[in-house]
Every structure is written in structure tokens, then in C-alpha cells.
Amino acid sequence: MATNRVFQSVLLAAGVLALAACASQPAPKGSLAEKQFQRVAKEYQVFERDGQKVYCKMANTKIIPHTCLSEPELRLVVERAARDRNPVVYVRSPPGVG
Description:
- The chain is an alpha+beta fold.
- The protein has a domain at 31-85.
- Helices cover 48% and strands 18% of the residues.
- It contains 3 helices and 3 strands.
- The chain has helices at residues 2-23, 32-41, 71-85; strands spanning 45-49, 52-58, 65-70.
- A 3-stranded antiparallel β-sheet has the order 1-2-3.
- Strand 1 and strand 2 (52-58) form a beta hairpin.
- Helix 2 (32-41) crosses helix 3 (71-85).
- The longest helix is centred in the first third of the chain and has 22 residues, at 2-23.
- The radius of gyration is 21 Å and the shape is extended.
- Residues 14-21 have low confidence and may be disordered.
């Protein structure tokens, strides 16, 4: 019985790690998510900081950055904007149906 629980725990941990590894991968080059990211990234100036790309939106002065995001943060912003723009509409069924 104890070995069954250990086995289940190991399988659950492996599944969580596999899911986390897949979620952290960037979208494929030709995907819609990647195209949306590239379109939004054009609105930012790209800088290198500690070996990582940083995307900054400049204020009206063009000297001081207004908002700076790392690449994973900008990808998350684009993903959330796409998700919020296309909400799924749920239609309630009348009582007694279903």
C-alpha cells in the first residue's frame, strides 16, 4: 500500500515537471502567438541587460524609458491580452434542460 502511494507521488511529480517544462518553452516560429509577440515587440526598444533581452517603451522624451519588461514578461502580457480580447461566452441553458 505504501509503495502504491510512493509510485503515485512520483508519477504526479513527473507530470507536473513535464507540464512546467512544456509551458516554459517559447511558441514555435510560425505560430499565431509568436506573430502576435513579434508585432507587439516592434513597439518597444530592445536592450541587453545581464545577457537578457529587455523591451522598453520610451516616454515622450525618448531619453528615459517609461516601462521595461523582460522577454518572458512581455510574452505573458501578449498572451493575457489575446486571452482577454477573445473571451469565451457561455450561454446558460434554460432550467430543466440538460
